[in-house]
Amino acid sequence: MQNYNEIPPIIWVLLDDRAGNINQAVGLAEALKVPYIIKNIRYNKKIWQPNFLRGQSLKGVDIAKSDKLKDPWPQFVISAGRRLGPVARYIKEQTGGRCAIIQLMWPGFPSGDYDFVAIPTHDDSHRHKSLHKTLGAPNRINAESLSQAGKMWEKTLSEKAPPPPYIALLVGGDTKKGKFTPQIAAELGKLASDFANAKKFTLLISASRRTSPEAIKALKDAISCPYYFYDPATERANPYVAFLALSSSIIVTGDSISMCSESCSSGKPVFIYSPPEITPKKHQKFHEDLYTAKHALPFSITTLAACNHFQAPKVPLQEAEDLARLIREIYFD
What we know:
This protein is an alpha/beta fold. Helix content is 36%, strand content 16%. The protein is elongated.
């Protein structure tokens, strides 16, 4: 194998328009602690084509709106998600096969060109020559990012929010698999209020762009404790990471694997609210894996007593750091 320690490794990180993919790819690049360059990729109408038709090409890419992909080529490329797979393979082909592809999430078929593939344990239907399993999604949440966000927002929250201590409430929304209805939002609002009132805490609530206005209204109407609400539809500055940093515990909806993973990377007690009607089987498996590993507890009317006594594990979920350590062992050491 080539000795990548001979010169500083050059990594391209491919980013598309999906926030979850971005957080995974950049989180891993940051954890590697080596120089990297962001390459923003935008798509055109042909992106619907399956990867076996797109091949090692830029089919489906809006070249005019994307960053230039040209020499000098990288030694590594990090991509996340199926749609960026052919772009990574195109880059590898331009280098005569010398560029190593580090792929996060299953890339679809064909998969032979990928040198390192990381997928979550709940997605257990795939096989690959260099397959590595993670419990959650790699992300950018770590001690440094939490400290920075907490310091940035502490003064603002002291002026705008009710006083601490805080509980974070991270709310997702509608997905292809289920609708986050006003009824579900109202139940969450009541449960979270009961939990916060019992502890005399303030809720720091972060909604998602997937949270419908109807669900937001139902959630707010059901809350009976002090709270501060962030709405991404009306506010630009996002305190999401600061909420993770400044809260004593976190309630998160189970529709987002990214939000659950980031919550469990915070080192705080995490409680997942995930009614069966909005939770696909893969998400259910993911939640069960988190519960088994004691990274989280289910959040429902029947588990409130257990939530009161739950302690976060001594070592938080650190998928980006764990993958980075493995990649360094394989390629850099």
